[in-house]
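Before a colleague's protein record goes any further, I have to sign it off. What it holds is a sequence and that sequence's fold in token form. My question to you is simply how this chain folds and whether the tokens agree. Thanks in advance; the entry in question is below:
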Amino acid sequence: MASKVCGKCCAPKHALPASRSKLKRSLFVEAMAGGIVLILAVLGIVPHPLKVGDQIDLATQQRMQQREEQLRQEMIRLQQEFDKMTQELQSGLFLKNMLLAMWEVWPFGALPGALVLLFKLFWMATEVDSDESESSSDESSSSSEEEEEAPVNEWDVGRFLMQQMQVPVLHLAKRCKVVEALVGDLLHACHLITLNTPLLRLEQCIGVGSAFEGWSSHWDTVYSLLVPLKPPTGHCFHLELGAGGELPARHGRVRVELECVCLRQQLLGDVRCFLHRPEAELGRNQGPCLLQYLCSHSYLDVEKTACWFQLTAMNAWLLLPASHRCRLTVLPSSRSCKLRLEKVSGRSLSIEILFGVQQGDSRVFLTSQQARAGLPSSTTWLESCAVPEMLFFRFVARQAPQDSCHLTCLNLFARLLEGTGFSTYCLKTVLMHLLTVIPLSRWHRGHLLERVDGILQYLQRCLEDKQLHHFLLGNERVPREVPLPVAFQTASPLNLFQRLAQEPDAHAQALRDFRRLQVRLRSLL
């Protein structure tokens, strides 16, 4: 009785695998049948398939050689058709020719190459169609009118220059974001390395210069970033601005003083009061590191600061994931940190990190930037307006029309000024003045020629009067979104063309350079 119950219970257990195996065999047979049908279908499509046995006779071998030569000639013809692809795309015959070529080379295994070639042509045709659709939306004349020479108007030139300048500017903006994020990660790694040392605190970097203002006069752009410096706990900065220099190019020094942190030391115990702790307890190697290593006679030393940051950056770079894909090289520099990043592909990126100490709540800094005439000592810092100027261009970008041409004008003149005595800062000052005088709604790309002519006229008047005022000094038109020190707001205007008023030869040369600039612009437009 027990054996019968066991037989009834065991029978389904053995029957289930058997049914599964039958199902697998049936699926395999169906798959094989489908594969055979597919192969037969392909063999039915292929014209005159070759019959190859165990031994290939001489006649078959000769036919294969002839066919090989025919295929070689066919591939030459396909290459010629590929070279004439643009005309075929316009005439609409490329698809027919490629299908015929595929049909002829199918039997000999050239199908993958033909499909790849067809895919390439289809992709390029799609790009051509998209380009034509984009250009047709911008063009106001029909195709028949385009064949004739249309008169050049302001809008056509504006569109042309915008197209020429817009792609580099957009590419520049993307690279600026990447560079700013990369330097931010590097500063964070530097902070981790120097966390337990009473040295300088590195604040978030600020992009400055032509690249971060939205324009650049050279393709090999150097991306400049300013790193604000803060004193460590127990120290404070006092700025001593030179009274002899003129705003905003005056010099200054940063005096480092000690602060009492005894109360914090008693409550938290995370700091030491260097001011009231006896020197005998501090020991030789436990003194205030900032005054010992980065200062000269109680003043923050630019060269020592740059050297310290260069060493810290080299060690911090190894902590970043980007170090596995790029090679970092620290270039020689006594007042900044110049970096060159090289990818495996060989492309390189140049970055310059400047250091600055902020003046109060304003965005004006004493920076480590090198002056043209040189600086008297390593404890001398140069006053810079790079951050307020960058903020002004960002303000204009938010308020101006989406297709504003002010950056196109600046980029255009930056290229035309090469070889002349005018600096890009001179033309940038002219542009900033005009941006606050002419409504931003009139900087549409349709007004490009009018704006270019306005820049030339403004520059010509400045040369005739031998006077071009600095944009940020004593100018009531500076937006409130650009914070400036009170001394800047109440200062008298600074003449950037003072040298022209003092030297007649320099003024005559400036007028000749202006005429050269006019000739270059006429030849371009």
Notes: The chain has 19 helices and twelve strands.
